[in-house]
Give the backbone structure.
Amino acid sequence: MQVQTHVDIQSEWGIVAARQAGRKLAREIGFGSVDQARITTAISELARNIYLYAKKGQIHIEEVIASNNRKGIKVIAVDKGPGIKDIRKVMEDGYTTSGGLGAGLPGVKRLMDEFSIDSEINNGTKITAIKWLR
Amino acid sequence: MQVQTHVDIQSEWGIVAARQAGRKLAREIGFGSVDQARITTAISELARNIYLYAKKGQIHIEEVIASNNRKGIKVIAVDKGPGIKDIRKVMEDGYTTSGGLGAGLPGVKRLMDEFSIDSEINNGTKITAIKWLR
Amino acid sequence: MEETRLSMYQSYKEMLTSYIKSKSEHALYSAQQFSKEMMEKDMSPEEMVSLHLSVFKEIVDELPEEVIASFDLLLEVMIGYGLAHQEHLSLRDRQRQLDSELDVAARMQKSLLPNEQIEVDAVDLGVVSVPAGKMSGDYYHYLSDEHGNIGIAVADVIGKGVPAAMCMSMIKYAMDSLPEQRLQPAALLENLNRVVARNIDSDMFITMVYGTYAPREHLFYYASAGHEPGFFYEAATNTFEDLKTKGLVLGVSPKVHYKEFSINMEPGDFIVLLSDGVTECRIHDHFLERSQISSLIGKYKHLPAQAIAENVFRELEKIQDFELKDDFTLLILRRNV
Amino acid sequence: MEETRLSMYQSYKEMLTSYIKSKSEHALYSAQQFSKEMMEKDMSPEEMVSLHLSVFKEIVDELPEEVIASFDLLLEVMIGYGLAHQEHLSLRDRQRQLDSELDVAARMQKSLLPNEQIEVDAVDLGVVSVPAGKMSGDYYHYLSDEHGNIGIAVADVIGKGVPAAMCMSMIKYAMDSLPEQRLQPAALLENLNRVVARNIDSDMFITMVYGTYAPREHLFYYASAGHEPGFFYEAATNTFEDLKTKGLVLGVSPKVHYKEFSINMEPGDFIVLLSDGVTECRIHDHFLERSQISSLIGKYKHLPAQAIAENVFRELEKIQDFELKDDFTLLILRRNV
Ligand SMILES: [Mn+2]
Ligand SMILES: [Mn+2]
Ligand SMILES: [Mn+2]
Ligand SMILES: [Mn+2]
């Protein structure tokens, strides 16, 4: 039986709730404390992006099991916001340390093992990210 | 009255002795713990360079006072080793994180406030570095 | 700076106090935001560790002496990370400067490419050329003369980035100096080959295809120097055919003879010239087949030439996860009437 | 990786145990070496903090619960530094790739410069040209024809790095296409000016000085397009004189007329052409005077031309703390007999 959690994001409280749900599931799946913190940070950034650019949306978090029985955690961030115009540009390695947008999506990609993005102008964005247990 | 210390470097013990002398003086001058550690690391790298490339040499450490009464610590590393062929190259920003030579001279320059280098092929090298109390 | 430090100290103290008391996720969220702020202010990791210790010392009375000692060691290790961090900051500055330099160079490079529309009603021309990095090792060219004759070309320097871009600009200057051969594909390649062989190291090669369309004869003449074969689309049969190619890449030997081919074009037929960045589009671990490329082009064939090229690029970009492995150039020339 | 982690854990545990017991500098020295090792293995700072905590937990029995809690917060902050560190690693890789690309481009650029000795007994020629970065925006040229006539030039693209280098290569290709003007400094600059004005954005300028020496007449003719004035050294009086210069920089206006000057050279006299990277050599907050440059050249005047140039470069490099602010080019042509 797989655990699934859905968190609505429309305020900073939603961000914190998503973090909490993610950290909890990550711990239950068996991730160590550094990976727990990484997964939580990734969720936090995804939720914050929704909050800042699409105003509202959802974060879905679930356990996944690969064909080789490896366990992992999957995070899906969905919104109906303005969409991303130039995905290539957004995914370009920004300069995290210079701040502004924060870690942003390249940061999320780094923190997780798999990352994919689907976006349509004026029709929202869906980002899926997975981290596998080592 | 200014304090001066000289340490002979010809083994790893010399490196440790130079570090210890530097850390002690840095603390007495009034540097905070982060700066103490930085100064010590700089001394360590200078001493290690002597040990690795010139086999032996000295580290001199002393308190300095600028014309505006600002206090600081001055480190001089002297050896009669092979000298540095291409100073521009050595001082080029290497890639510390890729290791090998370790922090090297660009690292020392970063850790301290002032840095100068004099070197003659087959006639040794003299490096002077100062860090000022903030 | 001192003020910043003080306010940093205050915020971190509040967070740590609150977290020790409540263990709340909210405090951890604040800590993450705090870390961004620290980095924006270029605080290095050893300063962070030292800040942590001083706050901690103040909050907890009588911290065991070994806890404090343990931080000495941690701090010592973090100095190395601090150096790496500072190196990162300067690398970032250097990279930024280089990036803006390359942006200027890329603009210069772009200005070497044709940018006006071709004013010939008999044909419809479209082109998309996107470098994998900032600068391109692909080159394209089109030009019409006073009789409505059209010359088109695509070239690809083997190699990428700045050196390839420098070669590419040489091709442009060399083309400029050969106005007489613009209607003779084979002769043009033969002359270019001489220039390339003279100026470029023997480990640099350039492939190129050059063609001309004569609107009164409805004939497309072309020659190729080892370049990725293009396609000929025949509207009557709705089929794609490879453009025959033979010929040594430019720059290998100073004297090479190129063979010229010709194709009769009916209304609606079109020619596709491309670089291998289009055909050798890698998805995960395999390449797209050439037949997949031609069906992709076929899917948009009802559109104007420029729109075909743009749509094909958009689809291929997406399949590759928005990361081009090679410079991409796709040029389409259709006979209208 | 697991094995590495385990051995890291072991070494750190020994260090921490020893340090807590003895507080010895030796343990701290080991910690510093350890940090290098961690970084060589691309371990990020948050992994370091986490390693510290797990070792610490094992060493100290019954660690106060608030100590452990405090580490949660520190770890959270360090994740941000960890991201920056990973970014650093990839930035470093990108920089390395770019560096090797620029090395190739710099080699290509170098191959555009003359590299054979001039075989004319009547003169002695020396040149040193060092870019501030990898690529140069300075250009120099020398050539002798079958009658022993010599052409020399120094040019400086306003701007540095890759875009400047791309302009520089254009100058070279343009010079190649103007063989007829090699003995006519003013005419050559006029032609070059047309090419530059046609091909380069209006915000890019090039300064240039071109001169020819006719060994039978012992006359040096030259013209300048807004270039930094060179020097004429007269052996008889042992004095340096500025080379007169007038003339608009290349590329401002398509039609410019350049004035030609001439100098009579006696044995031992020499001409110095240079770029402003030589004269605008900055030391701390002031520039060297031109008179300081000429006395520096005078100091080595007894040496062959190449040795003069090299010695001057070495001294100026040292004065500037081995960091060139601008591309440096110094060319010396001396009449021997
Ligand atoms: Mn290429
Ligand atoms: Mn290619
Ligand atoms: Mn310049
Ligand atoms: Mn200059």
About this structure: Chain C has a mean pLDDT of 90.
